[in-house]
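seq:
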Amino acid sequence: MLLALLLLATNQVEAQKKLAADSIAAVEKQWVAKILANTIAPQSGNKFKKAPTGFALYFIEADTLKVPYWVYVPKQYNPAKAHKTIVYLHGGVGSIKQFQYKDPEYATESIFALAERYNAIVLYPFAKKDFGWMQQPASFQYVLDMIDAAKQSYHINAQQVFLGGMSNGGSATFWFASNHPDLFAGFYTFAALPKLQISEINFKALASKPFYSLHAHDDSLYLYKNVKATYDLHKAEAKAWHLETVPQGGHGFIYRKNSEEVMQGLLDKLLLHQ
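struct:
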């Protein structure tokens, strides 16, 4: 009798897991269909096309992969006008096994709400453990290719493209600032370690374009004292690099209740004064 009850309980748990998985899959399928429907073809002639507000899903061939990225179009997007553009590199790359473009939870990132404030297009590339901006050169090239591809469909102001990110994405930002400062109007990072696995940082390159970093004093993953030590060591050469802090919030401080306000405080300095 006891064995039968245990088997029944196990079957019920498995059935609940399957139901939950099926529900998630249905939500993801609906989300992907919606954002695929928002894609637009490259411009024809000198005029850019109207674009649906919100998210659109695209793919780029990189190595042997089809790599996804989102484009977020603000409500006031005008195809006749060149728009500021924010490239956002997400964190958590080392623990992600699959590209998370199917997950609508990513659409709640504060960067998308702030895009409305700046009337900016947001380019949101996806990464994973074996294709991410930690030590795979192809993933860095993919970001540059994504920007070029987006310029074919959306009216992007090439002189006002800002790149940054959180955690791993923030660390990767130092690579772009080191190797391609001429392609961007400025850089930003949240909870980023100024250290690269792929190469050394060229701190002298951080003298030409504004670079704003925000870090929590109680970050237990990338200790503030270590970030501050690197900042102090290189500040004389990295003259455009500004390190700012929040007192608490840990490594994920941009996901707290006041995340939008905190991010805005930094991004205003970068995007509203260019």
